[in-house]
Amino acid sequence: MSDTVPQTGTEPQARTASDEREPEPEHDPAAPAPLGVPRTPTGHAEADAHLERLADADRLATDGHLEVYEDVHRGLRDALTALDARPGPAGPDGRPTVTPG
Asked: What share of the chain is helix, strand, coil (3-state, %, to 5)?
């Protein structure tokens, strides 16, 4: 009789550095990530400031994008509305009246 253990046909493999690495974290599609959408300046400072606000969406999870988009839309709409409001002749109080475009 022998005190040795019979071999099963497979030899134990040596551990490598790749075996000791931590597992990579799972990809979270809702995690903040840059959208990579270019924002081309318009040349109108107020509009450009609102468009730059879109970059805030890059740091937010997708459920926070709506607030940024609504804020930008509101700002751009107000800027366009202000362009349409042309001052008219002075009213009784000395201030110009606004006439629709």
From this structure: 40, 10, 50
Q: How far is CA 36 from the centre of its chain?
A: 9
The amino acid sitting at 100 is P
* For helices 65-84 and 45-52, angle between their N-to-C axes, nearest 10 degrees: 170
38 vs 50: CA distance, rounded Å = 14
Longest dimension (CA), the chain: 121
Torsion angle defined by CA atoms of residues 25, 29, 33 and 37, in that order, rounded to the nearest 10 degrees = 150
Per-residue pLDDT tens digits for 16-28: 655 567 666 677 7
Instruction: Say how far apart CA 59 and CA 55 lie, in whole Å.
Output: 8
**Of 51, 33, 29, 55, which Cα lies nearest the Cα of 42?**
51
Question: CA 79 to CA 101: how far, in whole Å?
Answer: 14
Q: What DSSP character marks residue 60?
A: S
User: Does the predicted model carry a pTM greater than 0.90?
Assistant: no
